[in-house]
Each structure stands twice: as C-alpha cells, then as structure tokens.
UniProtKB/TrEMBL annotation:
<dbReference type="InterPro" id="IPR038078">
    <property type="entry name" value="PhoU-like_sf"/>
</dbReference>
<dbReference type="Pfam" id="PF01865">
    <property type="entry name" value="PhoU_div"/>
</dbReference>
<comment type="similarity">
    <text>Belongs to the UPF0111 family.</text>
</comment>
<protein>
    <recommendedName>
        <fullName>Phosphate transport regulator (Distant homolog of PhoU)</fullName>
    </recommendedName>
</protein>
<dbReference type="InterPro" id="IPR018445">
    <property type="entry name" value="Put_Phosphate_transp_reg"/>
</dbReference>
<dbReference type="InterPro" id="IPR052912">
    <property type="entry name" value="UPF0111_domain"/>
</dbReference>
Length: 208
C-alpha cells in the first residue's frame, strides 16, 4: 500500500536508531581500548549491532518504497541511512581486526580517538532527533553539524601525531602495520561522520 502524505516522521526514528547503534559501537570500541582483554566479548556484541543496522537499513528501503510523499526526499533519507550504516560497519571492522591481529595492548591515541568518536556519535543521535522539526531547529542543527567538523579536526591531529610516533623506529614492524591499519579505520570513521554532517547541512538548507 502506498501512503500519500508527508507526516511520516517515523522515518526519522530509523535514522535515530541507526545513530544509536553507531553510538553503542563507539562505546564498545572505547571500552575495548581501555581494556584490551574485552575485545572478544565486545566484538561479539558489535556483530549483533551491525546485523541490526543491516535490518534497519532494509526496513528503510521497504518503507520508502511504500510512501509516496516523504518528509524529505527519499534520496536524502537513503543517503543518510547508508552513511550511518557505513559508520556502524567501520566500528565492527575495527573490533574484528583488533581481535584478528591479536592486539595485546592499546595506545593513548586509540583511547583518545574512540572517546572523540563517542562524542561524534552522540551528537548524531541528537541531530537526528532534532531533524524531525527542521524549520524549528534550523539554527541548532547547523551549529551542531558544524561542531562535528571541529571534532573531526581534533581526531586528525591525534591521528597524524600517532602515525608519526609509530614510524619513529622504536616499534616492531608488525605492530606498525597493525596499528596503522587500525588507526586508519578510526580516522576514516571520523571522516565519514564529517561527510554525514555535510549531508545534514544540505538537507537543512533544502528544507528549513
């Protein structure tokens, strides 16, 4: 059945749920970096979160195919959902590789970056809640979206310093390879969130 109205704000709940799953994933990653022995347990929890994110994305596709007029363009909904799911996938990938690489200890930089990713994911949850009323929340939405770029810059700074540190020559080559890969995943996740914030700005300007 095709529904013809533009009051389907329940669609935003899917985005809020995806952002919430991403937030849970960043918390798991941070807890794993604080206590590396928790990796197997947290990776298993992240596996189930990633599976739930896949389900939600499929539900979004199904709902969009049934609704004739959506609160925002269906293309925008789909783009936001896919990028959120990508963020969840990156957290799953990070925990999975940390376990596969048999990491025995964490680093200060990994803890700092995962802490900032928690801040970014929590901000996304709030942003998608506010998105339900774009016109009313336009200024707050723009301000919070812009702030995500500031956090991403902080992640970049930590990432560059840490990459420089691990290549100083005091770390075994195999550990360099492992940490470079893991740090790249974290930094790419931060970049993905910044890209999401830019999509949000486009949506805000289009519909506010």
């Amino acid at each position: 059945m095709i529904h013809i109205n533009n009051n389907h704000t329940e669609l935003f709940n899917y985005l809020i749920d995806l952002a919430g799953i991403f937030n849970q994933g960043t918390i798991l990653a941070n807890e794993a970096m604080l206590d590396i022995l928790k990796i197997p347990h947290h990776r298993e929890k992240m596996f189930h979160l990633e599976h739930r994110a896949d389900q939600i994305n499929q539900e979004i596709i199904t709902q969009l195919s049934c609704i004739f007029v959506t609160p925002i363009d269906r293309e925008d909904f789909y783009k936001l959902a896919c990028n959120l799911e990508d963020c969840v996938d990156r957290m799953h990938d990070f925990l999975m590789r940390t376990e596969l690489y048999h990491m025995k200890e964490s680093t200060t930089a990994a803890i700092q970056i995962t802490t900032l990713l928690i801040d970014m994911s929590a901000a996304l949850v709030e942003l998608f809640q506010l998105l339900k009323n774009i016109s009313k929340n336009e200024s707050v939405l723009m301000k919070k979206s812009t702030h995500l770029g500031t956090i991403e810059s902080a992640v970049d700074t930590i990432y560059r310093k840490e990459i420089s540190r691990i290549f100083e020559g005091n770390i075994p080559l195999l550990d360099i390879i492992k940490w470079q890969d893991l740090l790249n995943i974290l930094e790419n996740t931060s970049d993905q969130v910044e890209y999401l914030s830019n999509i949000l700005k486009e949506v805000i300007m289009k519909y506010a």
